[in-house]
Amino acid sequence: MTAVAENSTSAAETKAGEIPSFDVTLRIRRLDPDRSDEPFWEEFTVTAHATDRVLDAMHKVKWEVDGSLTFRRSCAHGICGSDAMRINGRNRLACKTLLKDLDPSKPIVIEPIKGLPVLKDLVVDMEPFFASYREVMPFLITGGNAPTAERRQSPEERARYDDTTKCILCAACTSSCPVFWTDGQYFGPAAIVNAHRFIFDSRDEGAAQRLEILNDKEGVWRCRTTFNCSEACPRGIEVTKAIQEVKRAMITRAF
Ligand code: SF4
Ligand code: FES
Question: Ranges for the 2Fe-2S ferredoxin-type domain (predicted)?
Fold first, then answer.
């Protein structure tokens, strides 16, 4: 089925100073469990501008063509991590993906991220993802009495885990991992990234516990170093490197 939004203005009609507009087709994989268990594809053609992102085009569809189109988004600026989806076969944030970078002369294919149950259209059930995240205890663990002054840390100690503090829990890495697709029990890259953030924090005392948890048969050893996760991460985190560092800490007990 194809739906088209009105108000299309060709680039030739653009006045001086205006941002050129063009028509773009979104080919979206949809699921409406109230009607059928079978997913289906639907195309929408909308007018967009050179500065628009995929999220802007999706908003246009939702607000002007079909209000039933369902997807998550919140901040629209790459911070909340809620709009990860498969765009032209790659996991990306819709709010950080410019249409002009995708060759908008061809339909842009949008699907839900893989490996998690689809609830409706592009919305997946994130609970299995967050269950793994919670299991690695992503919080500072300390013993004894609370200190009377701040817990001090040198710039070098802070740098040790700086990269993994950038995670926004979008699941782009975990849902791009072939091991996760075939075995939903695998903790997945995001949980390991968030364990790394605390394992290498000099103020934390829970590293041994976390390493024990990740030494499980569904833990870090399932990683096959395919680098999909690093390529998918919209924050540029070196996910595979973090996983390797956790593996090394497990063997050397140096953290
Ligand atoms: S590591 Fe990157 S891709 Fe994975 S959840 Fe965090 S921000 Fe998203
Ligand atoms: S909507 Fe928040 S990261 Fe895209």
Answer: 22-116
The domain segmentation of the chain, as residue ranges, is 2-124, 127-252
Question: Which residues form the pocket of ligand 2, taking CB atoms under 6 Å from any ligand atom?
Answer: 73-76, 78-83, 93, 95
Let me know the angle formed at the C-alpha of 65 by 73 and 51, rounded to the nearest 5 degrees: 55
Regarding the domain with residue range 127-252, which homologous superfamily does it belong to in the CATH classification? Answer: Alpha-helical ferredoxin (1.10.1060.10)
Segment holding 127, helix H or strand E: helix 127-135
Q: Which of 192, 235, 245 to mutate to test the pocket of ligand 1 (most atoms within 8 A of CB)?
A: 235
Distance CA 201, CA 208 (A): 12
CATH C-level class of 2-124: alpha beta
Condensed to tens digits (0 to 9), the pLDDT of residues 29-81 reads: 999 999 999 999 999 999 999 899 999 999 999 999 999 999 999 999 999 99
Give the global pTM.
0.91
**Between the CA of residue 89 and those of 1, 60, 163, 243, what are the distances in Å?**
21, 22, 26, 24
Identify the H or E element spanning 179: helix 178-182
Q: Which of 162, 174, 233, 238 for mutating ligand 1's site (highest number of atoms within 8 Å of CB)?
A: 233
The DSSP H or E segment spanning 29 is strand 21-30
pLDDT < 50 regions, the chain: 6, 8-12
Q: Which one-letter amino acid corresponds to residue 46?
A: V
With beta carbons less than 8 A apart as the criterion, state whether 214 and 195 touch.
Answer: yes
Distance of CA 193 to the CA centre of its chain: 13
Contact 173, 189 (CB under 8 A): yes
